[in-house]
Amino acid sequence: MLSGAPTPITLAAGEIKYYVSQKLSLSGCESEKAELKVTVLALPLAPSTTDLNYCLNQQNIQPLTATGSNLTWYDANGTLLSGAPTPITLAAGEIKYYVSQKLSPSGCESEKAELKVTVLALPLAPATTSLTYCQNQAALPLTATGSNLTWYDANGTVLSGAPTPITLAAGEIKYYVSQKLSPSGCESEKAELKVTVLALPPAPKVSDLNYCLGQKNVPPLFAEGRDLVWYDSSGLLLSSAPTPSTAVAGTLIYFVAERSVQGCHGLRSKITISINEIPVAPFVKKVTYCQNESASKLQVEGNNLKWYNEQGNLLPTTPVPTTSAFGIINYYVSQTNSSGCESPKSKIIVEVFAAPEKPIISASGPVLLCEGSSVILKSSPSSYYQWFKDGEILNGAVGQALTVEETGLYKVITKNSSGCGSEFSEGINVLINKISQQPTILAQGSLSVCEGQAVVLNSTSPIGNQWYKDEVLIPGATGQSYSAKISGKYTVIVNTPAGCSSKQSDPVLVSINSTPVIPVITTQSSMLICKGGVATLTSSISSGNQWYKNGTLISGATGSTYVANSTGNYTVKSKNVSGCESLNSNEINLVEEEFKISLQTSSNVVEYGSKIELNTSSKLGYKILSWSPTNIFVEGDAKSQAFVLLKNLTVTVNAISDNGCYASATINIEVDKKRDLFIPNTFTPNGDGKNDVVKVYGTDIESIDWTIYSQWGQLIYKSKDRDTSWDGTYNGVMQPVGVYVYKCVVRFRDGEEVIKHGAINLVR
Fold it and tell me: How many helices (H) and strands (E) does the chain have?
């Protein structure tokens, strides 16, 4: 019998039997034993498992599996899982799982079998280097540092092997590469490899060139672009820009390209240089001219001619030889073909033969002749002569001398042995004059005029006149008119250019009368006149006067004096018995102005008893008639006054101008009644000599009546002396410190009276 209900032991598989009875509580009787059979079933075997390896971050991982039935899964800590777990590959390392199985129908669970999952670390991404190619450059397959490389394009598509970049277009191409380690086969992260294809620089701007065979100073080739590289016709790179050779005619080919800052050679531009043949020199002939002959442009056979002077300088146009000087002038000419190539220069000789000197004609005598006379004209020596009259050739006049009997302009030309003619000689005018008719004198106006005037005499002949006075030739008087300014008998004769004289004209008697003396105007009055006033003007000439105002004759004003009563410019002229009038006299300018008298003083307000001065003034001359008040001014006609002012005063002055106009002026003068009155309110009668007394101060004081009282009303001081002072005593006794009141009646010299009350502090 067991002490209590037993606990079965399951350490071994098998069957264990137990028995149990019961007892009633009242009787204590035990029942029959009932059998209880405990069967300990044997456990199933643990499931069969296989450890697994995964790569870090591997995708599409399946749940774990094991060989068994009714599997139960646990994590590394033994925690029951809801089902078969799916390993996580986010971190490299080892993960343990456990699994058991249960048999039916007993449901006994087997031992747990371990399943180890290893997450393998990935290898490092391969090392790559980005590449740069020039556009169209031949490229090599890409490489990277690593093992078992796998290549991908920019879209992540796996490639069959290492790619070779295509450089046909400029831009950027991305590739990716990874590596796999053995034996795990885990693939690394993909490394980027960037391939940059640089755009080629544009083809330089070039121009084909043309040169002439043998041309000198050919410069190196030029193209528009930066960092240029040059190639010969076969594409061979040159070290610098080539200088074409012009030694052989033909065509040269060169290529040029730009090189970018990355060193890419751009598209090539082709330059074609043509070396052209040069034409033959033009055929020329010698040219001759006479000196000063009109020359034309030089002419030769050729195309696109170029002309040069003797110094070899190119001329802008076909030259025209200068024939102003004799001698030989050399010119050079070349021709150019359609290629612009210039031929050798041909020399043209231009010879200018000297012309004979300009002939000089001499006359055997005067060329101004009277009718019936002749003159012989003779040319300077030469080989040939031809005479002309008035520009027309004289037929048969081919000798050195020519006899002339007709009026005309005569010239001659000559020729030398070279056949060159001279220029025309200077012409000689030959004038055959007829004898003139007797002239007549006509006078313009009267033959009797005043001094300073002239009688104009006119001859009936327009030319050749010579005037005489009293049978004496007047030098220079050869015009048709003559102005006679001196009395006398005048005649005229007419001379032709040949010196042929007419008969003398009939005489004309001219009388020139003297003019009066210029009068002088005097006046006793001012040039300024008052309105309504007059000024008497006197001429220095006693008779024959005529007065003018502003240049206009004053009707009836013919006396030696003139009384002017208005403004203006006055002059006078005199006239003698011959009716001759003098020049204007001096000018008297009368100006009319209102007569005003001014009365001035230094101040209109002055102190009482001060001396004051009054002064008068006016723009016009004047006299003082009277002053008022008359009792103050003794000299009634004085222009200035001085007096002592004792009261306010109104002064009036009356005056008359030199022209008889009246005026008066008035001024008001006031006495300044400012009163300087002061009585101190404190004094210290202590005998120190400072402020020991008190007194009344002021100006223009005539008298005072001063009384001082103590504070109790006792009169202790009284005085009517305006210069007196109180010393602080009463009946010889010094008064105590305190306040004393006063009354002071002050009378000033102008009679005004002021009463002043106040207090005085006596202090010691």
Answer: 0, 61
